[in-house]
Design a protein that fits this description.
With 255 residues, the chain is an alpha/beta fold. Helix content is 36%, strand content 19%. The chain contains 9 helices and 9 strands. A hairpin with a 2-residue loop joins strand 8 (240-245) and strand 9 (248-251). The termini are close together. The chain binds zinc ion (ZN) (2 copies). One zinc ion (ZN) binds at residues 5, 7, 78, 217.
């Protein structure tokens, strides 16, 4: 068992220390955990300018040693809209991370989905523009896994897509070596499905997709590893559950 999407107090929206996640991971018997704090260059994001890589590594490096016998600690980031901030993204690609998640948090007039809803932007518009933005991000590439594939679902509570657009997104991901994350945060937020769930994973599989990563999107220790069994149940056929070490995929055996 592992978790490759975890936020610590190096993210603006979490207060949890790295060490407390490590203790919990040992307690739960996790083999690998990867910290993926937010990196946001959108000035409308309250996390803009919050992350400090040197402070992160100062805390991370001694812990990696401390837990070496019980747990493999991996370091990563969740970089928002890499295609919009190519110069900034390049800076982080050069740092010694094991894993880079790419995500789309802002689109449609540069808004976060909670603001889109307040501005009466319909689910149809939000999803249409979202899939265009995702296509641009995966075409740009340079990251290892795409976080929370059908993200607007978390806020709109419904899922809209055309099969054709999902196939083009998946084909670009495969060509650019981008894995599909199964993000289970929606299971804690009142929905009965992960992001993505079976229907979109089936399209990913049909398009030739193979690699999936698991992420709880934990912001506190209670959320570490949450939803792993649900994610596990979605992995079938040719799908391979992978972790990333030094930006290379390593296959995991499924429990
Ligand atoms: Zn995210
Ligand atoms: Zn996240």
């Amino acid at each position: 068992m592992h978790d490759l999407h975890i936020h610590t107090h190096h993210s603006c929206d979490s207060k949890t220390s790295l060490d407390s996640y490590c203790k919990k991971a040992v307690e739960l018997g996790l083999e690998y955990i990867c910290f993926t704090d937010h990196i946001d260059f959108n000035k409308a994001d309250y996390g803009y300018g919050y992350y400090d890589a040197s402070l992160f590594f100062k805390e991370f490096n001694p812990l990696k040693e401390k837990y070496v016998d019980n747990l493999t600690l991996l370091c990563g980031v969740e970089f928002s809209e890499p295609h919009v901030y190519p110069k900034e993204f390049e800076m982080y690609q050069k740092m010694p991370y094991d894993f880079i998640l790419g995500s789309i948090h802002f689109w449609v007039d540069d808004l976060f989905p909670t603001k889109m809803k307040k501005s009466n932007i319909s689910a149809k518009t939000a999803f249409n523009r979202y899939w265009q933005e995702v296509y641009a991000a995966v075409s740009f590439g340079g990251f290892d896994s795409l976080a929370h594939f059908d993200f607007p679902k978390r806020y709109y509570g419904e899922l809209l897509y055309s099969e054709k657009s999902i196939i083009s997104v998946c084909k670009k991901m495969i060509r650019n070596n981008i894995a599909m994350e199964i993000n289970t945060s929606t299971l804690r937020q009142g929905l009965d499905c992960s992001m993505p769930d079976k229907a979109l994973l089936d399209i990913y599989k049909q398009a030739g997709g193979r690699y999936v990563t698991f992420g709880s999107d934990a912001h506190s220790v209670q959320e570490l590893g949450a939803g792993y069994q649900h994610a596990r149940s979605l992995i079938s056929g040719n799908l391979q559950n992978v972790i990333y070490v030094q930006r290379r995929p390593i296959k995991c055996s499924l429990m």
